[in-house]
């Protein structure tokens, strides 16, 4: 039961992340980005502001 709740939470989290990605990520439409960037954006594309500060927490969440 707990595993199901965790899976649902992860799915909602990924869905929300993919929805908010165009807003916080250079305002580019999500379709122009490669699919891999949705989960692990390449370093050289990231602006040096809020997203790079968020990157360590995202990495620790994924582990």
Task: Show the helix and strand layout.
Blueprint: H1 2-24, H2 35-39, H3 50-62
Instruction: Specify the helix fraction band.
Output: 55-70%
**What is the overall silhouette?**
globular
Which structural class best describes the helix and strand composition?
mainly alpha
Residue stretches low in confidence (pLDDT < 50, at least 5 long) are 30-41, 46-53
Number of strands: 0
What does the oligomeric state look like here?
single chain
Query: Major β-sheet, in short?
Result: none
Annotation field: number of helices = 3
Beta-strand content: under 5%
Q: CA-to-CA gap between the ends?
A: 21 Å
The helix-strand sequence is HHH
Total separate domains: 1
Query: Over all CA atoms, what is the radius of gyration?
Result: 13 Å
Task: Look at the structure and give the mean pLDDT.
Answer: 54
Description:
The protein is an all-alpha fold and 63 residues long. It has one domain. Helix content is 65%, strand content 0%. About 32% of the residues have low confidence.
Would you summarize the structure shown here?
By secondary structure, this protein is mainly alpha-helical. The protein has three helices and no strands.
């Amino acid at each position: 039961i707990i595993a199901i709740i965790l899976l649902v939470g992860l799915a909602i989290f990924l869905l929300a992340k993919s929805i908010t990605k165009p807003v916080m990520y250079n305002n580019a439409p999500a379709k122009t980005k490669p699919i891999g960037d949705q989960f692990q954006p390449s370093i050289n594309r990231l602006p040096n502001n809020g997203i790079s500060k968020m990157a360590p927490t995202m990495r620790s969440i994924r582990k």
